Amino acid sequence: MLPEFVALSDGNENDMVEGRKFQFPKGSVVAFDKGYVDSQWFASLTAQEVGFVTRLRTKAVYKVLERRTVTKDKGVTSDQVIQLNSAHALKRGVPKLRRVGFIDRESGQRYVFLTNNFSLCAATIAAIYKDRWQVELFFKAIKQNLKIKAFVGQSRNAILTQIWIAMITNL
Question: Residue 85 is part of which domain span?
Answer without folding.
Answer: 15-131
